[in-house]
Amino acid sequence: GQQVMQIPQYQHVQEGEDFTTYCNSSTTLSNIQWYKQRPGGHPVFLIQLVKSGEVKKQKRLTFQFGEAKKNSSLHITATQTTDVGTYFCAGPKAAGNKLTFGGGTRVLVKP
Amino acid sequence: SAVISQKPSRDICQRGTSLTIQCQVDSQVTMMFWYRQQPGQSLTLIATANQGSEATYESGFVIDKFPISRPNLTFSTLTVSNMSPEDSSIYLCSVEFAGGIGQPQHFGDGTRLSIL
Question: Within an 8 Å CB–CB cutoff, is residue B33 touching chain A?
């Protein structure tokens, strides 16, 4: 079945530094979504990418969808303590509205 | 934005008992889903709650263990039956507000369940 993998599993970042987390799907995706889950909280939708090669920015967060629509990345610049949490990518299953979530990247920020 | 209320927020239960979790949305939604998230893990879809009909379960999840109801477009329940310590997890409902493929999902706060 469809698999969505994320690397790294953990990311320890010094405050102010940049980092990137990667998402790879075993199948071509019609779209990819990113969610953030703060410690003790629930996942919150961040963004959706639909087009091949699409790049979207939300303040210090830059999301990219690969040309083959099988991978995606999230780049965070000038990391802040508010960026702490787990970032999940999710792609639609073969049919319908169901999502397959990646394993997540757990981000820890060192002040 | 709409409010998704999930009850209870947490519970500690004895093995062999059952617990029903409620998910209430303050507006009509097209899709409702139930997920399980084990500590430090990703989200695993249990089932899609279908309004007025039987839920659609994912591989590895069965109706006898996780009966689901969705009597209308704003409310659903998930029951975790005959619980064992392996059922200790966070259970989350999620909803989609609009029709069509690829809509974002919005999650309730989750139910943190511990089985003794």
Answer: yes
